[in-house]
Specification:
This protein has 237 residues and is an alpha+beta fold. Helices cover 57% and strands 7% of the residues. The protein is globular and about 45 Å long. The protein binds glutathione.
């Protein structure tokens, strides 16, 4: 059995995990072919940063999907970005920031603040917490997420403003992908995993989000989502 233990939040709707950061790591592990034990965590709190994902490996515990991926690239000498040029690597960082530091927070707003999504969230993201504990934890977690959203700034916007922000980001991703087939041409790379992990968590889940229609408005993104899934998660089709 592999000594690499990977802790992630629960999966649903055919996704290995409904956490974009956990799904990014899962996709990286698949693309890099790194053997590991995948462990579902009920909450992110046991992780070293109190966020998911995290890993344990040879006595070390590491949190943060990007730091974990950087570590694993070195440790296992496996890099799905090895073929990228310096300019493509720089663009990949800009894409990652757009996805993880901006667009992700619109998804968080949709999941945690829209009342119609609240029962769905309790049954999935919080679904593996035993019911009596969940009754207590769920409202506390919701308050904490709303605080994080306000601190970030995304939580201060109106629904209309959020839609405009999301439409710009999704339009930019569609523009960067162009005719593809992947973000950097003919070969898949980590940028594809980064974008997939968020867009799949919007397009393929039961949470209501205006972003679903925005994604569907870009046929190249829709085709690419299917392509990424076929390539990396054929068993989920
Ligand atoms: N920068 C971190 C972000 C991880 C993150 O925010 N994970 C979410 C789940 S998608 C989480 O654990 N949130 C719990 C919280 O913030 O309390 C990474 O790349 O791993």
């Amino acid at each position: 059995m592999s000594e690499l233990k990977v802790y992630h939040l629960p999966g649903a709707w055919g996704l290995a995990t409904v956490s974009p950061f956990c799904l990014k790591l899962d996709s990286f592990l698949k693309m890099a072919g790194i053997d590991h034990q995948s462990i579902t965590a009920s909450t992110p709190f046991p992780g070293p940063k109190k966020k998911a994902p995290w890993i344990e490996y040879q006595g070390r515990t590491i949190g943060d999907s990007t730091l974990i991926i950087d570590f694993l690239k070195e440790e296992f000498d496996a890099d799905p970005d090895a073929h990228l040029t310096d300019q493509q690597r720089a663009t990949a960082i800009a894409i990652q920031r757009l996805v993880e530091e901006n667009l992700y927070w619109v998804m968080v707003y949709d999941r945690w603040c829209r009342d119609e999504n609240w029962p769905i969230l309790k049954g999935t993201v919080l679904g593996s917490i035993p019911a009596p504990v969940r009754m207590f934890i769920a409202p506390v977690a919701r308050r904490s997420v709303k605080k994080q959203l306000a601190g970030h700034g995304m939580g201060l916007h109106s629904a209309q403003e959020l839609n405009a922000i999301a439409a710009k980001d999704i339009g930019a991703l569609a523009g960067l992908l162009g005719d593809g087939p992947w973000f950097f041409g003919d070969r898949i790379s980590g940028a594809d995993a980064t974008v997939y992990s968020l867009l799949a968590n919007i397009a393929f889940v039961a949470f209501e989000s205006p972003m679903k229609a925005m994604i569907n408005g870009h046929p190249n993104l829709v085709a690419w989502l299917g392509r990424f899934k076929d390539e990396n998660y054929p068993e989920d089709n």
